[in-house]
Amino acid sequence: MNFAPPQTASSPETLPPSGLPEWEGEGSSRIPFWAYTDPAVYRRELDRMFYGNGHWCYVALEAELPKFGDYKISYVGERQVIVVRERDGSLNVVENRCAHRGVRFCQKPRGNARSFVCPYHQWTYKLNGDLAGLPFRQGVKKDDGEVQGGMPADFDLKQHGLTKLKVATYNGLVFATFDHDAPSFEDYIGPDVLPWLNRIFDGRKLTILGTNRQRIPGNWKLMMENIKDPYHPGLLHTWFVTFGLWRADQQSRMVMDSEGRHAVMISQRNAGGEARAVTEGVTSFKKDMALNDARLLDVVPEYWWKGPTVTMITLFPSVIIQQQVNSLSTRHIVPSGPDCFDFVWTHFGFEEDDEAMTRRRLRQANLFGPAGFVSADDGEVIEFSQAGFRQKGAEGSTICELDGRGVAPTPHMVTETLIRGMYGYWRKVMEL
Ligand code: FES
Ligand code: FE2
């Protein structure tokens, strides 16, 4: 499998000479199309949302790297990093870029190593990113004793390691940041969203069930929006509305952190009655649709649900954590230019699961992933959105005004408040 993303990062030459566009008007309920398409805006986003300003980005699950030396390639924004397990059990995250001539030296997506050696001139790095040594540092001694070449006498190995990221592990999740002044991960997530993370990640050991990857030709924020948008699931997704997994009359709650950047959509299946208004005139509702294999929806309640059957968590800017009945996944957003992102799904369960539960989680995972009965719709509609923005040009904007123009947690799902929350924050950090 090819894990490398396309090299389509916008270059400075493509920036408009006038700099960044102006966001006219107040608030965050009308998002200009250029927020999704402009290369200069995108460059500032990478710097502020992914590489700086105290943002933590998801890079892995600990269960992917159980043993000393286990590593995987991951991303923070467009920058490729290596997540690796140290001898003492801790995790390092270092940038996959040689200090010598900038080579992306590690090419295997996963493996086990005691050190990293760049293939070009064999500079060798410890697992923590320190430069351990390099060939011909003292030059080459000829037979007559004369020494040729070598690095300058003041060349200091300690000054030339890999770029090291600050790392946070949280009950099996691994996050990293280039910003060494970032707040603690717990402070970053905040007290409103953290309990919902704890509900799934309470310290139980995770098991990895599989991964999918897809490339979606749309702006990365559209994926965040999609999972902050409880308006669409009961309308876009035939599967959800027909089989009752997500209906607008379900008992629901929208939670967000104090900044408006992280959120949780919480809902409980079949707990809100069966209002006809929810399916009447909804063209995606297929009354007569039935499953050939009913095991796809063999839902078994779990003790840790404590009510909700669905929690969709968006941790800005890089990851979505999905619990939809018995199916669990992390979905890593890897931006690649303003018009494209890679979406990496890791489906997981718990070590305490019996074989039947593991099979069940795997069967239900068919709803999700690139070709999932539900998620294929989202990938497609994001592509359609980006196409629409390009068609209209810079002068238009989206409308996110369901349930008003303000930003507040809500006790129902007939709202676009979480999207407004994210763009309120985005606008502030971007200074637009
Ligand atoms: Fe890596 Fe020269 S570029 S050793
Ligand atoms: Fe969706």
Automatic annotation (TrEMBL):
- Domain of life, per the record? Bacteria
What InterPro entries does UniProt report for this protein, alphabetically? AhdA1c-like_alpha_C, ARHD_Rieske_2Fe_2S, Rieske_2Fe-2S, Rieske_2Fe-2S_sf, Ring_hydroxy_dOase_asu_C_dom, Rng_hydr_dOase-A
UniProt keyword annotation of Cytoplasm present: no
List the molecular function annotations (GO) for this entry: 2 iron, 2 sulfur cluster binding; dioxygenase activity; iron ion binding
UniProt-listed Pfam families: Rieske (PF00355), Ring_hydroxyl_A (PF00848)
Residues of the region (Disordered) are 1-26
* Entry keyword set: 2Fe-2S, Dioxygenase, Iron, Iron-sulfur, Metal-binding, NAD, Oxidoreductase
Is Transferase there in the keyword field? no
Q: Where is the composition biased (Polar residues)?
A: 1-13
Q: Which residue range or ranges hold the Rieske domain?
A: 56-154
Kindly give the CDD domains that the UniProt entry links to this protein: RHO_alpha_C_ahdA1c-like (cd08880)
Record's family? Belongs to the bacterial ring-hydroxylating dioxygenase alpha subunit family.
- Name the record gives this protein: Rieske 2Fe-2S domain-containing protein
Organism equals Ferrovibrio terrae
